[in-house]
Amino acid sequence: MQCPTCQNTDSRVLESRSADTGKSVRRRRECLNCSFRFTTYERVETMPISVLKKDGSRELFNKDKLVTGISRACEKTTFSREAIIDFVDSIESQIIQDSNKDIKSSQIGELILKGLRKENEVAYIRYASVYRKFNGVKDFVSTLESLKGSSKNELASIL
Q1: pTM of the prediction?
Q2: 86-137 pLDDT, tens per residue?
Q3: Which residues span the domain enclosing 61?
Q4: Whole-angstrom distance, CA of residue 59 vs CA of residue 54
Q5: In this structure, are 35 and 77 located in the same domain?
Q6: Are 19 and 41 in contact (CB under 8 A)?
Q7: 28 assigned to some structural domain
Q8: How many CB atoms lie within 10 A of CB 145?
Q9: Is 3 part of a structural domain of the chain?
Q10: Which among 118, 158, 121, 116 is positioned nearest to 141, based on CA atoms?
């Protein structure tokens, strides 16, 4: 590993520990030339995953896009930033386990909806309204019915 200050490639490991819930190894190193101490992380390299879009195009899987979309759905809820990142990490793990190299964007959307339904009902409704392109109140009502198992009369009295 190259020292960030003197560019020497000789260093010794002072300490190693598991990081990122076991997905990486954090190593504390010391340069043998200048004695500068620095930290490195070692992770398993994964194959890039292509997302097949509805229009037929492909793009590389981008975890940040999921964080952004889910963060919008979770605004003004009790879902913390850390919980969102943990949630996205779990979605990413499922994608890596379930797919070879390609996954449809619709599959990612359904994984997110399935997870949000368990985690936060408000975020689920918000995400579903964008993902499923709700056109009006009827779409919200039918989603609320499926979420709560309520009758139309009960929901109509609420609305």
Answers
A1: 0.60
A2: 888 888 888 888 766 788 888 888 898 888 888 877 888 888 887 777 777 7
A3: 50-158
A4: 11
A5: no
A6: yes
A7: yes
A8: 14
A9: no
A10: 158
User: Do residues 61 and 103 lie in contact, with contact meaning Cβ atoms separated by under 8 Å?
Assistant: yes
**Under 8 Å CB-to-CB from 42, ≥6 apart: which residues?**
24, 25, 27
Task: Give tens-digit pLDDT for 12-29.
Answer: 999 999 887 777 899 999
Q: What is the Cα–Cα distance from 99 to 89, expressed in whole angstroms?
A: 15
Q: Cβ distance 33 to 46 under 8 Å?
A: no
Overall residue count recorded for the chain in this entry: 159
Distance of CA 84 to the CA centre of its chain: 7
Specify the number of domains making up the chain: 2
Neighbours of 13 (CB within 10 A): 11
Amino acid code (one letter) for 36: F
Which two structure tokens, joined as six digits, stand for 15? Answer: 């300490």
Judged against a pLDDT cut of 70, whether residue 63 lies above it is answered with: yes
